[in-house]
Fold this sequence. Notes:
35% of the residues lie in helices and 20% in strands. The chain is of the alpha+beta class and 155 residues long.
Amino acid sequence: MYINFRKNSLRLKDFNYKTPGYYFITIDTYDKKPLFINNQICLIIKKIIVQLKIRFKFKITAGCIMPNHLHVIIMLSHNNKINLSQIIQAYKSLTTREINLHSKTYQKIWQRGYYDHIIRNEKDLEEKYYYILNNPLKANLVKKPEDYKYYIFDN
């Protein structure tokens, strides 16, 4: 599949984003606005990523919904029929629709694009995992990880 790259794209030009493995993803809200401070909105964010994980057959190693962004480690397997960009596109589209229906407004939810990091080894995976786990602490949202209720883990 051909991916159309923007001039300032963060994607690796010759990398196949269907390649099985772990990917650390960060998606920012539009203008970095703190849109995810409402419990119902966070539940929508969580619900849709779980629905897509089932539909597109990927795993979520860890994720964290922050007030103005989302971090998630996705593991693609050999069974994946679509690439990472298609998963993110579907996610942004569905969450935008659901949040706007819930809020009875029309607003942009997500910033254009996303950041990805291809995880290359166990050390890298562990670092990204703990980065996600500690993100709410760094942002002074909680004192300890177990107090944060907007993590996403595969069950």
